[in-house]
Amino acid sequence: MIIGIGVDVCDISRWEAAIQRRPGIARKVLTDAEAALPAHSQAARFAAKEALYKALSGVGGLSWQDCEVVTDGTAVKFELRGSLARRAKELGVRTVHLSLTHDAGVAVAMVVCEG
User: Fold this and answer.
1) CATH number of the domain enclosing 39
2) Which residues are annotated as a binding site?
3) Which GO terms describe its cellular component (predicted)?
4) Rounded distance, CA 72 to CA 50, Å?
5) Enclosing domain of residue 81
6) Taking the chain, what is the end-to-end CA distance rounded to the nearest angstrom?
7) Which of 1, 34, 37, 108 has the most CB atoms around its CB within 10 Å?
8) Cβ neighbours of residue 47 under 8 Å, at least 6 residues apart?
9) What average pLDDT does the segment 45-55 reach?
10) CB of 45 within 8 A of CB of 34?
11) How many independent structural domains does the chain possess?
12) Where is the binding site for Mg(2+), in residues?
């Protein structure tokens, strides 16, 4: 059963401008490993976290650092912990599907939470 779906788009040039104006923003929303990636990959991970938030019904009190987009070979997936792991459990989420792409200056993420 599908519990939630989230989609987000991040303009890569806007992401680059934001992290140049406020370098701390990358460290606020990305883990150390995510922040070490190129800007287009950072933008995709930011979009992924936004999409996950939407799929989990967008409640407050969720920490950006409580999820990390990791690559398992060629597949990407989330590692959830803390507030996001608790929220997923509350909703009965057993599997989180994640798809990322970046082309034509934008990064797009789609998340499906399945119970």
Assistant:
1) 3.90.470.20
2) 8, 50
3) cytoplasm
4) 21
5) 2-114
6) 5
7) 34
8) 8, 9, 10, 100, 107, 108, 109
9) 96
10) yes
11) 1
12) 8, 50
Say which residues have a Cβ less than 8 Å from residue 90's Cβ, sequence separation at least 6. none
Segment 78-88 shows an average pLDDT of 94
Residue 115 and residue 105: Cα distance in Å, rounded? 34
| 61 pLDDT higher than 90 | no
Tokens of 91: 């909703």
Q: To which H or E segment does residue 106 belong?
A: strand 106-114
Residue 6 has pLDDT above 80, yes or no: yes
Q: Which two tokens stand for residue 82?
A: 């803390």
Place of tokens 């930011």: 46
User: Closest Cα partner for 113 from 67, 73, 46, 72?
Assistant: 67
Q: Could you identify the residue written with the tokens 């119970």?
A: 115
Tokens of 38: 């190129």
User: Is the pTM higher than 0.85?
Assistant: yes
